Amino acid sequence: MASRAVAVTGIGIVTSLGQGAEANWQKLIAGESGIHRITRFPTDKLRTTIGGSVDFLLEQPFSATQLSFALARTAAAEAVAQAKLGAAGDFPGELFLASPPVEHEWPQRVRLDRQAPGQPHTYAGMMSAAAQAGEDLYVDFLNGTIADKLADEFGTKGSPITLTTACASGATAIQLGVEAIRRGQTKAALAIGTDGSIHMEALIRFTLLSALSTNNEDPTKAARPFGKGRDGFVMAEGAGALVLEDAEAARARGATILGYIRGVGEAADTFHRTRSNPNGEAIIRAINNALGDAGITPDDVDYINAHGTSTPENDKMEAFGIQAVFGDKAGQVPVSSNKSMIGHALTAAGAVEAVISILTLQHQVLPPTINHDGPQDIPLDFVPNEARPADVDLILSNSFGFGGQNVCLVIGRNPD
């Protein structure tokens, strides 16, 4: 399988910084933050009142499902247009979509209760009520509905795949696309990660897990990956999309190749619903699996696009894993987290960061970790506060999710 090189011929991105690869890149290298005070719903009684929400695609009110679809469609349209692969609406490959869990939120539940009183407040009961109340409430909240709509719009082939592996989901979508191309199942794949889940209920749930930053005073300084003052992640929204192709087929059609997915690695530790195993074994194994799949060693990696969520434990465990794999070289490999600027886009994060890795290869500039607050207890080079020109051929992009679901990608300028 690994003998079949996989090329990236199109990318698309939407984050709290804006829409499109160029707009996002310019703000990333300028060290700008897209994190702001939430205005979508009242926050006066919440512990966390900030986020990296995307407020410019849809007019309010809207559901997380509707926004997740709009984000995915926008990013995919940019990627497909750049790839110039097939006719419009006739994508000659399969769709792999990472999307958040689909469920009715409080506004829909209230509406259902008013329209179908007496229905049991179970998922089955609510879906039954939704089917009776109107097609939008029913179809919009079916599992797989986002992928189905994307498949119809872009004309992808085969059954669209919807997946969720927590915060590793976007990278998992890319992994599945790479593996399908390698085994000859398809010549091309559209891999998307999307998440438009900032609503009151989701914010409360993460608050109850003590996962979110409560540094509300200055939203732009709340996300502090690997910093001493970090107190939790900042919930964000966004989407990343990549057109993946069999490299030989892409070269044969004269495509412009932006980079290559050289290696993929995954590992799960099944230790806890949210925490990583303190021994770091699964994180270490995921990194080593990706490097091994790419046929490289730690010495070959030029830059690490960190998961870097800004939670005390995740950053500590990721740094521990990097140190364990890279040994004496760990302090010499630049490591930065774009979540310091865009927040944590959850299901979309792995795909968003893969797009940013491709942009890093194209521009040969490392995005910074902003809000870096001086000497650290973690002895790594976090590209503090300012972007840095660099000679970059191979990037390790990490995605470590709740429940110990870990996926790492090796992304390179060249196929081997």
TrEMBL record:
Family annotation (SMART domains): PKS_KS
GO molecular function: 3-oxoacyl-[acyl-carrier-protein] synthase activity
Source organism, top-level taxon: Bacteria
Record GO biological process: fatty acid biosynthetic process
Domain Ketosynthase family 3 (KS3): 3-413
Claim: Transferase is one of the keywords in the record: yes
GO cellular component: cytosol
Keywords: Transferase
Pathway(s) this gene product operates in, as recorded in its UniProt entry: Lipid metabolism; fatty acid biosynthesis
Record-linked NCBIfam families: PRK06501.1
Family: Belongs to the thiolase-like superfamily. Beta-ketoacyl-ACP synthases family.
Protein name as catalogued: Beta-ketoacyl-ACP synthase
Species this protein is from: Zavarzinia aquatilis
